[in-house]
Amino acid sequence: MGKKHILLLLTLVMLALLSGVYVVGGVQAYSRFRQNSLADQEHCGGQAPVHICVYAPAAVFSAFYPSYVATQYPLFKVNYSSDSAQTLLINVSIGKFSQEETQTVSANGSTQTSAFIPPLQGQILRNLTTDMNTSLHVQVTDTHNQTYYLNDIPLLLRSRWLMQWLVSNRLQIAAWVTPNDPAVAELVRKATAHLASEAPPAPPGMIGYKGSAPQVTAQVDAIYDSLRLDYGITYIQASVPYNGTAGDTTNESAGGNNVTQYVKLPAEVLQQRSGMCTELTILLAAAVERIGLHASIVVIPGHAFLGVAVTEDNKHIQYWDAVDVNNNIAADSANVAANALYEKNLKQRTIVDTIAIQEARAARIGPMV
Q1: Per-residue pLDDT at 339 exceeds 80
Q2: What spatial distance separates the first Cα and last Cα of the chain, rounded to whole Å?
Q3: CA distances to 21, 177, 262, 346 from 253, in Å
Q4: Mean local confidence (pLDDT), 174-181
Q5: Distance CA 301, CA 282 (A)
Q6: φ and ψ at 339, to 5 degrees?
Q7: What's the mean pLDDT in 324-335?
Q8: How far is the C-alpha of 242 from the C-alpha of 263, rounded, in Å?
Q9: Which pTM value belongs to this model?
């Protein structure tokens, strides 16, 4: 091989190596940028002698917000200090979303921190089906109404339809389970009429755990059959983007595009008479919870289905898969098929997660509306 060819070959190799380093470095830099955008943003200022720093995320998943309020999660933080000791009033609110929260603090030369999670405005979440650009309003005054800090910090509120499937958020899916919704109550009322058609010994009504395990199964069967016969529900194919790991949050500034999913509430599913597996499972769970039964959402790769404890001690579980409503399969047959599906995935160790609604309620994650 001639010297020119050798030099050309070496040049090409070096260029390839350099381009590889550039691409990897660029990807890592982009990843760091995205991760930084997820962290709390710092907004410092204040008129002397007061010093203020506000820490707030750039975006919030609105469906999670009621649980933040219930648990007093420190979503927003304000650091404050004053060169001369004085009493300050810190007022925080989210435009068109929350009420005001005011804290009275004693400021001095040491930096102190107060956490804020302003309560919601009534039923604001019902209409928040699209993302909303708003702002976090922060005002700091003294007792004479002298303003030392005033800022409207941009904040993106994600649609209440948007679920972020991360392990840390796994219980948040229970916010979509709304047993007290009138539409769910109507479903249970209609389902009661189907009890007479269920295999004996069917109970006379929706009695929860007051009957035997077979009677509990019959109640869930009746709810399932009501979806099939009274509502003509159609199953829509869609994958559940949850694999039971921490998830990749580097793809979207508001929380990981590859682990988010739009999920409608049970009332919306009943109105539209269609839903994907997550939505139909949530709908079934809402009706089951309404009659006092313990529901769970079982996730396998790409799919979700319902689990119900047929004994109050949660030792015996039966399963129903909403995919079968499309095939007009009766509930008792759907129950048998879902039990087999669960056992198959249990044997293959492919059960991603089992999310107990009861566990979520204990963690103070209630229905979002």
Answers
A1: yes
A2: 76
A3: 25, 27, 17, 35
A4: 98
A5: 17
A6: -60, -40
A7: 90
A8: 13
A9: 0.86
Own/partner contacts of 287-290, CB < 8 Å, gap of 24 or more, are: 287/179, 287/184, 287/187, 287/188, 287/191, 287/223, 288/220, 288/223, 289/177, 289/179, 289/357, 290/179, 290/180, 290/184, 290/185, 290/188
Specify whether the CB–CB gap between 127 and 110 falls below 8 A.
no
Name residue 310's amino acid. V
Residue type, 104: T
- Output phi, psi for 143, to 5 deg: -70, -10
The residues with which 115 forms a beta bridge, in sequence order, are: 77
Q: Which residues of 156-173 are buried (b: 16+ CB within 10 A; e: fewer)?
A: ebbbbbbbbbbeebbbbb
Q: How far is CA 182 from CA 188, 224, 266, 286, in A?
A: 10, 18, 10, 11
Mean pLDDT of the chain: 89
- Give the separation between CA 21 and CA 16, rounded to whole angstroms: 9
- Could you give the CA distance from residue 365 to residue 255 in angstroms, rounded to a whole number? 20
| pLDDT tens profile 51-89 | 999 999 999 999 999 999 999 999 999 999 999 999 999
Question: CA–CA separation, 71 vs 58, rounded Å?
Answer: 21
Count of Cβ atoms closer than 10 Å to residue 353 Cβ: 18
Matching residue, tokens 């015996």: 316
Paired residues of 60 in beta bridges? 157
Residue 245: the pLDDT is 75
Would you say 234 and 325 are in contact if contact means Cβ atoms under 8 Å apart? yes
Of the candidates 315, 290, 321, 263, which has an alpha carbon nearest to the alpha carbon of residue 129? 263
Angle of helix 182-192 relative to helix 277-290, nearest 10 degrees, comes to 70
Structure tokens at 48: 């002397």
